[in-house]
Amino acid sequence: MASDRPLRADARRNALLVIEAARTLFAERGVDIPMEDVGRAAGVGKGTLYRRFPTKDHLIAAVSRDRFDRLTAAAGELAAEFPDPVDALGAWLRDYDRSAQQYRGLRAVESAGIADAGSAIFTDCAPMKERAGVLLAAAQAVGGVRADVEITPLLSLVASLPDAFRAPDGSSLLLPVVLRGIAGVRAG
């Protein structure tokens, strides 16, 4: 959102209406939908829409924010659940991949935004990237992931996996290829 100061009750309500309308329309029609269509569906004017969400990037980041928060929490949970940090990272990347499927076209936008320091997505996903980076570092420490793998390019790669290569359960047929590609050589 455009500002960090607390919103008035009506402004907060309008922002939530816009986010809910965007969620619905992104799922139905994809993230390429015009901003004005989202504003109309939310029942707000252009001024209200663009004051809170100056660009499509800001709106997508707002829609993705709860997903990023959930994935941030999941990284810590998976680290505790899986004794092998490579398994924890793999489970987290599968969750990261699957969670983007609810919105058509989100993967491409996030793939670019994750690496663009000027984007709202970059800012909003920073805590998630930091937590995922901890999973990656733990997997690298045991030799299970190559030392030259960095979290931002890895997330951009996974976010760019095409939906055309999906199993009936929605899982990516290409993610196992990515996981094999980043695998390190374990000692012992």
Structure described in brief:
By secondary structure, the protein is an all-alpha fold. The protein has helices spanning 9-29, 35-42, 46-52, 56-81, 85-99, 106-115, 120-124, 126-141, 151-159, 175-182. The model has no long low-confidence stretch (mean pLDDT 90).
Structure characterization notes:
By secondary structure, this protein is mainly alpha-helical. The radius of gyration is 18 Å and the shape is elongated. The chain has 10 helices and no strands. Helix content is 66%, strand content 0%. The model has no long low-confidence stretch (mean pLDDT 90). It has helices spanning 9-29, 35-42, 46-52, 56-81, 85-99, 106-115, 120-124, 126-141, 151-159, 175-182.
Compile the SSE list and pairings.
Blueprint: H1 9-29, H2 35-42, H3 46-52, H4 56-81, H5 85-99, H6 106-115, H7 120-124, H8 126-141, H9 151-159, H10 175-182
Cα distance spanning the termini:
50 Å
Radius of gyration: 18 Å
Query: Which stretches are low in confidence, meaning pLDDT under 50 for 5 or more residues running?
Result: none
- Percent range for helical residues? 55-70%
What do the pLDDT scores average to? Answer: 90
The main pleated sheet reads as: none
Task: Work out the helix count.
Answer: 10
Can you tell me the overall shape? elongated
**Structural class by SSE content:** mainly alpha
